[in-house]
């Protein structure tokens, strides 16, 4: 199948974006360059087109009960207009996907990873209960992320909603650039910011409105390349790299979003066993001690023996050094542990460090 195009495909090409196939879509990987775009988000504000993500609406009188059975976190804790990071697991505890669930009071929205959209929908429909319904509205929505310390000031020009009152992991339905929008105080960069869901028909109007509103802050479009380096500096997991069907949420460090005491849910028994016995490996962050860049799939060594594997690695534009995320055998997960990353047949010195790698200065 040919990759699909988001509503802004032509806009991205006109802006000079380098387009690549990602999760079944043509997506902009960079415009000016990954490092410049990364620094723009860290310094003022950038805008991302993330319309490849999936939007599922879960409705019906049993919607909450259904999500409580399907997801790791405790949906009953959600008030209207509150959001929650969560995930879904197979019965063996392997992760199907991670996602954010948004509560609208009488129904919910789940934003899922683009690469998992079909798999997630199939799994959720296979376990549907009477009184709950799933509607895949992914093709109806464009999703933009406006991220950086000037994100709120940028968006505030386009809405009467008092954005300062929308706290982290909360959201509102409002007008943005005179268009119906769901304004979500979430993001994948570690900066202040919002994600905005709008109907695809209004994509160009809102995108252009945001670029105009952010002009005084030197707003720039940001590609997937910088999105990856930004999320890595925060040690945010990427499905398919750091978490997948072979990883358990406990070993992935997602125990904080896994509520084993909420009652039964899919995968609970297998996750409980890992929790009780202790994980044999853990997901850690590490920094290179020499000038080198770790990459996905590289071996992690201790005294020449393989103890793990790199799941994500990059050059950090903020720290100006190589950083990585990977699974290592316990007890080599302790902060301060000296390890080596095998790069082109040589063990390059690295150290397990406390994460996130980057600390926001404001």
Q: Please identify the structural class as seen in this structure.
A: alpha+beta
What is the second-level CATH architecture of the domain at 4-53 and 139-233?
A: 2-Layer Sandwich
CATH topology of the domain at 4-53 and 139-233: Gyrase A, domain 2
Order of helices and strands: EHEEHEEHEEEHEEHEEEHEHHEEEEEE
Counting DSSP H or I runs of 4 or more residues, the number of helices is 8
Unreliable residue runs: none
Sheet of most strands: 6 strands, mixed
Distance between the termini: 45 Å
- Tell me the CATH superfamily of the domain at 4-53 and 139-233: Probable tRNA modification gtpase trme, domain 1
Report the CATH C-level class of the domain at 4-53 and 139-233. Alpha Beta
Q: What does the average pLDDT come to?
A: 98
- Read across the widest sheet, the strand sequence of neighbours is 11-12-13-10-4-14
Instruction: Count all strands and give the number.
Output: 20
Assess the beta-strand content as a share of residues. Answer: 25-35%
Descriptive report:
The longest helix has 11 residues, at 203-213. Among the domains are: 4-53 and 139-233, Probable tRNA modification gtpase trme, domain 1 (Gyrase A, domain 2), CATH 3.30.1360.120; 280-362, Beta Barrel (Elongation Factor Tu (Ef-tu), domain 3). Helix 2 (34-43) crosses helix 7. Helices cover 20% and strands 35% of the residues. The N and C termini lie far apart (45 Å). The strands form four sheets. A six-stranded mixed sheet has the order 11-12-13-10-4-14, with helices on both faces. Strands 15-18-17-16-19-20 form a six-stranded antiparallel barrel. The protein is α+β, with helices and mostly antiparallel strands and 362 residues long. The protein contains eight helices and 20 strands. The radius of gyration is 21 Å and the shape is globular. The mean pLDDT is 98. It has helices at 9-14, 34-43, 63-70, 117-126, 151-156, 203-213, 224-233, 268-277; strands at 4-5, 18-22, 25-30, 46-49, 54-59, 83-89, 95-103, 107-112, 133-136, 141-147, 171-176, 179-184, 193-199, 220-222, 281-288, 299-302, 305-316, 321-329, 338-343, 346-353.
């Amino acid at each position: 199948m040919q990759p699909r195009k988001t509503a802004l495909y032509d806009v991205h090409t006109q802006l000079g974006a380098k387009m690549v196939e990602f999760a079944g879509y043509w997506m902009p990987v960079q415009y000016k360059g990954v490092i410049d775009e990364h620094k723009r988000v860290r310094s003022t504000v950038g805008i991302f087109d993330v319309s490849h993500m999936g939007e599922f609406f879960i409705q019906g009188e049993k919607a909450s009960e259904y999500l409580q059975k399907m997801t790791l976190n405790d949906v009953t804790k959600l008030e209207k207009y509150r959001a929650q990071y969560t995930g879904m697991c197979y019965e063996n505890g392997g992760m199907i996907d991670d996602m954010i669930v948004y509560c609208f009071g009488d129904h919910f929205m789940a934003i899922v990873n683009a690469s998992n959209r079909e798999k997630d929908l199939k799994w959720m429909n296979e376990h549907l209960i009477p009184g709950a319904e799933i509607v895949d509205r992914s093709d109806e929505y464009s999703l933009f992320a406006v991220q950086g310390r000037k994100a709120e000031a940028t968006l505030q020009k386009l809405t009467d909603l008092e954005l300062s009152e929308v706290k982290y992991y909360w959201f509102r339905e409002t007008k943005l650039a005179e268009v119906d929008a769901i304004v979500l105080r979430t993001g994948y960069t570690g900066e202040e910011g919002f994600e905005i869901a709008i109907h695809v028909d209004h994509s160009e109007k809102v995108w252009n409105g945001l670029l105009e509103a952010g002009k005084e802050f030197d707003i720039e479009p940001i590609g997937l390349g910088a999105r990856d380096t930004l999320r890595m500096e925060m040690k945010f997991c990427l499905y398919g790299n750091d978490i997948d069907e072979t990883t358990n949420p406990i070993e992935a460090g997602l125990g904080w979003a896994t509520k084993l005491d909420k009652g039964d849910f899919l995968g609970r028994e297998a996750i409980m066993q890992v929790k009780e016995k202790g994980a044999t490996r853990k997901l850690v962050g590490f920094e290179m001690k020499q000038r080198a860049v770790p990459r996905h799939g590289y071996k992690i060594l201790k005294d020449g023996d393989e103890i793990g594997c790199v799941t994500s690695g990059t050059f950090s534009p903020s720290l100006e050094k190589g950083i990585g995320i990977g699974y290592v055998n316990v007890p080599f997960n302790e902060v301060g542990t000296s390890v080596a990353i095998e790069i082109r047949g040589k063990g390059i010195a690295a150290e397990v460090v406390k994460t996130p790698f980057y600390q926001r200065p404001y």
